[in-house]
Amino acid sequence: MMARKKSSGKGGSAFMMFNVTYEDGMVTSNRRIANELLDLSFGDAIKDLARTAIEDQDNEIAQRSGQRRAKIKSIAAV
To answer: SS3 for the chain, per residue?
Structure first.
């Protein structure tokens, strides 16, 4: 039996990692945001783009789980 290489799932996409602190004190570490969502050509700061992407992820999770997260207090690149 030979070991199979794990597939990356979404091709060769590169990611940036962020730690997120919410207003209720909860912290999530190593949130992955695809680099294509962090396109600086529109002039937005990378943290603003990351915040938008993470809020979108949180909203998607909230729709499935029925539980909303608190608002994001701060974001730090890892």
So the answer is: CCCCCCCCCCCCCCEEEEEEEECCCCEEEEEEEEHHHHCHHHCCCHHHHHHHHHHHHHHHHHHHHCCCCCCEEEEEEC
33, HSE (Cβ side, Cα atoms, 13 Å) = 28
Q: What sign results for the dihedral spanned by CA atoms 51, 69, 22, 14? A: negative
Question: CA 54 to CA 18: how far, in whole Å?
Answer: 9
- Asked if residues 73 and 26 have their Cβ atoms less than 8 Å apart, the reply is no
| pLDDT tens-digit map of 7-65 | 555 555 699 999 999 999 999 999 999 999 888 776 778 899 999 999 999 999 999 99
Question: How are strands ordered across the β-sheet holding 27-34?
Answer: 27-34, 15-22, 72-77
Which amino acid is it at 16?
A: M
